[in-house]
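Something for you to look into today, if you have time. I want to see for myself how the chain folds. Leave the record below and I will have a look.
***
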Amino acid sequence: MHRASGISASAVSSSAAQGIADRVGVYTLSLDDAVEEVFRLMTKNSCLPVDQCPIEEREMISAVIGMAGAMSGICVLWSGETVALRMAETLTGLAIFKLNETVKDAVGEMCNMVAGAWKARQPSLASECMLSTPTVVTGTNYQLHNQRPEFRIERFYSFEEHSFAVTLICESMQ
Protein backbone atom coordinates (compact mmCIF):
# COMPACT_ATOMS: atom_id res chain seq x y z
CA MET A 1 0.00 0.00 0.00
CA HIS A 2 1.34 3.43 -0.93
CA ARG A 3 1.58 5.84 1.99
CA ALA A 4 2.16 9.57 1.97
CA SER A 5 2.86 11.29 5.28
CA GLY A 6 1.29 8.42 7.22
CA ILE A 7 -2.02 8.55 5.30
CA SER A 8 -3.15 5.50 3.37
CA ALA A 9 -3.85 5.75 -0.38
CA SER A 10 -7.52 5.01 0.26
CA ALA A 11 -7.71 7.86 2.79
CA VAL A 12 -6.07 10.19 0.27
CA SER A 13 -8.54 9.11 -2.39
CA SER A 14 -11.45 9.57 0.01
CA SER A 15 -10.14 12.99 1.03
CA ALA A 16 -9.65 14.01 -2.62
CA ALA A 17 -13.17 12.81 -3.48
CA GLN A 18 -14.59 14.83 -0.58
CA GLY A 19 -12.64 17.88 -1.77
CA ILE A 20 -14.13 17.54 -5.25
CA ALA A 21 -17.62 17.03 -3.79
CA ASP A 22 -17.22 20.17 -1.65
CA ARG A 23 -15.97 22.14 -4.66
CA VAL A 24 -18.88 20.93 -6.80
CA GLY A 25 -21.32 22.04 -4.10
CA VAL A 26 -19.82 25.54 -4.02
CA TYR A 27 -19.66 25.70 -7.81
CA THR A 28 -23.32 24.63 -8.11
CA LEU A 29 -24.54 27.36 -5.76
CA SER A 30 -22.37 29.90 -7.58
CA LEU A 31 -23.78 28.77 -10.92
CA ASP A 32 -27.35 29.25 -9.66
CA ASP A 33 -26.42 32.74 -8.42
CA ALA A 34 -24.68 33.63 -11.69
CA VAL A 35 -27.63 32.51 -13.85
CA GLU A 36 -30.10 34.45 -11.69
CA GLU A 37 -27.92 37.58 -11.75
CA VAL A 38 -27.39 37.54 -15.52
CA PHE A 39 -31.04 36.92 -16.35
CA ARG A 40 -32.29 39.49 -13.84
CA LEU A 41 -29.90 42.16 -15.16
CA MET A 42 -30.19 41.40 -18.87
CA THR A 43 -33.82 40.34 -19.26
CA LYS A 44 -35.45 41.89 -16.17
CA ASN A 45 -36.84 38.43 -15.39
CA SER A 46 -36.20 35.99 -12.59
CA CYS A 47 -34.54 32.73 -13.52
CA LEU A 48 -34.64 30.01 -10.88
CA PRO A 49 -33.36 26.43 -10.67
CA VAL A 50 -35.89 23.68 -11.36
CA ASP A 51 -35.72 19.89 -11.05
CA GLN A 52 -36.44 19.07 -14.68
CA CYS A 53 -35.90 20.54 -18.11
CA PRO A 54 -38.69 19.30 -20.34
CA ILE A 55 -37.57 20.31 -23.81
CA GLU A 56 -39.89 18.76 -26.36
CA GLU A 57 -38.66 20.59 -29.43
CA ARG A 58 -36.72 19.10 -32.29
CA GLU A 59 -34.65 22.21 -32.98
CA MET A 60 -32.04 22.74 -30.26
CA ILE A 61 -29.41 25.40 -29.69
CA SER A 62 -26.26 25.14 -27.57
CA ALA A 63 -23.74 27.85 -26.79
CA VAL A 64 -20.33 26.63 -25.63
CA ILE A 65 -17.70 28.68 -23.80
CA GLY A 66 -14.27 27.10 -23.37
CA MET A 67 -12.24 27.59 -20.20
CA ALA A 68 -8.46 27.37 -20.00
CA GLY A 69 -5.88 28.01 -17.32
CA ALA A 70 -6.53 27.15 -13.68
CA MET A 71 -9.55 25.18 -14.92
CA SER A 72 -9.89 23.52 -18.30
CA GLY A 73 -13.39 22.73 -19.42
CA ILE A 74 -16.55 24.17 -20.91
CA CYS A 75 -19.73 25.95 -19.95
CA VAL A 76 -22.73 25.03 -22.12
CA LEU A 77 -26.11 26.76 -22.21
CA TRP A 78 -28.63 24.69 -24.16
CA SER A 79 -32.29 25.04 -24.89
CA GLY A 80 -35.03 24.46 -27.38
CA GLU A 81 -35.78 26.99 -30.10
CA THR A 82 -38.71 28.62 -28.24
CA VAL A 83 -36.70 29.68 -25.18
CA ALA A 84 -33.81 30.79 -27.40
CA LEU A 85 -36.18 33.05 -29.35
CA ARG A 86 -37.56 34.45 -26.09
CA MET A 87 -34.05 35.12 -24.72
CA ALA A 88 -33.19 37.01 -27.88
CA GLU A 89 -36.45 39.00 -27.74
CA THR A 90 -35.83 40.10 -24.15
CA LEU A 91 -32.24 41.08 -24.93
CA THR A 92 -32.96 43.01 -28.12
CA GLY A 93 -36.49 44.27 -27.56
CA LEU A 94 -37.41 42.93 -31.02
CA ALA A 95 -40.03 40.34 -31.93
CA ILE A 96 -38.15 37.36 -33.36
CA PHE A 97 -39.98 34.52 -35.10
CA LYS A 98 -37.25 32.16 -36.32
CA LEU A 99 -33.84 30.91 -35.33
CA ASN A 100 -31.46 33.39 -36.96
CA GLU A 101 -28.08 35.05 -36.35
CA THR A 102 -29.55 37.42 -33.75
CA VAL A 103 -30.83 34.45 -31.73
CA LYS A 104 -27.49 32.64 -32.01
CA ASP A 105 -25.63 35.78 -30.91
CA ALA A 106 -28.03 36.31 -27.98
CA VAL A 107 -27.72 32.73 -26.70
CA GLY A 108 -23.95 32.85 -27.12
CA GLU A 109 -23.77 36.12 -25.21
CA MET A 110 -25.99 34.82 -22.40
CA CYS A 111 -23.71 31.79 -22.04
CA ASN A 112 -20.66 34.06 -22.06
CA MET A 113 -22.12 36.28 -19.33
CA VAL A 114 -23.14 33.27 -17.20
CA ALA A 115 -19.67 31.73 -17.52
CA GLY A 116 -18.03 35.06 -16.65
CA ALA A 117 -20.31 35.72 -13.68
CA TRP A 118 -19.73 32.18 -12.40
CA LYS A 119 -15.95 32.42 -12.83
CA ALA A 120 -15.85 35.79 -11.06
CA ARG A 121 -17.36 34.14 -7.96
CA GLN A 122 -14.41 31.72 -7.72
CA PRO A 123 -11.35 33.45 -6.22
CA SER A 124 -9.03 30.73 -7.55
CA LEU A 125 -10.38 31.15 -11.10
CA ALA A 126 -11.28 34.84 -11.40
CA SER A 127 -7.93 35.92 -12.85
CA GLU A 128 -6.38 32.52 -13.60
CA CYS A 129 -8.96 31.08 -15.99
CA MET A 130 -9.59 32.46 -19.45
CA LEU A 131 -12.86 32.19 -21.39
CA SER A 132 -13.19 31.65 -25.12
CA THR A 133 -15.65 33.37 -27.39
CA PRO A 134 -18.93 31.46 -27.78
CA THR A 135 -19.40 28.64 -30.23
CA VAL A 136 -23.06 28.09 -31.08
CA VAL A 137 -24.42 24.80 -32.38
CA THR A 138 -27.96 24.29 -33.70
CA GLY A 139 -29.71 21.26 -35.02
CA THR A 140 -32.16 18.46 -34.43
CA ASN A 141 -29.97 15.52 -33.48
CA TYR A 142 -26.60 16.23 -31.91
CA GLN A 143 -24.69 15.54 -28.70
CA LEU A 144 -21.63 17.22 -27.22
CA HIS A 145 -19.00 14.73 -26.08
CA ASN A 146 -15.98 15.22 -23.87
CA GLN A 147 -13.31 13.03 -22.36
CA ARG A 148 -13.71 11.79 -18.80
CA PRO A 149 -14.32 14.98 -16.84
CA GLU A 150 -13.06 15.59 -13.32
CA PHE A 151 -16.60 16.72 -12.59
CA ARG A 152 -19.79 17.77 -14.37
CA ILE A 153 -22.54 20.03 -13.06
CA GLU A 154 -25.81 20.13 -14.96
CA ARG A 155 -28.54 22.47 -13.76
CA PHE A 156 -31.98 23.26 -15.14
CA TYR A 157 -33.59 26.69 -14.96
CA SER A 158 -36.99 28.26 -15.52
CA PHE A 159 -37.12 31.51 -17.48
CA GLU A 160 -40.68 32.80 -17.71
CA GLU A 161 -42.56 29.59 -18.59
CA HIS A 162 -39.58 28.12 -20.45
CA SER A 163 -36.84 25.72 -19.35
CA PHE A 164 -33.19 25.52 -20.33
CA ALA A 165 -30.00 23.97 -18.98
CA VAL A 166 -26.49 25.08 -18.12
CA THR A 167 -23.73 22.52 -17.83
CA LEU A 168 -20.24 23.06 -16.42
CA ILE A 169 -17.73 20.39 -17.37
CA CYS A 170 -14.29 20.44 -15.76
CA GLU A 171 -11.69 18.39 -17.59
CA SER A 172 -8.88 19.36 -15.21
CA MET A 173 -7.95 21.73 -12.40
CA GLN A 174 -4.46 23.10 -11.86
Summary: The chain has one domain: 3-173. The first helix runs from residue 9 to 43. The helical segments are 9-43, 81-92, 101-120.
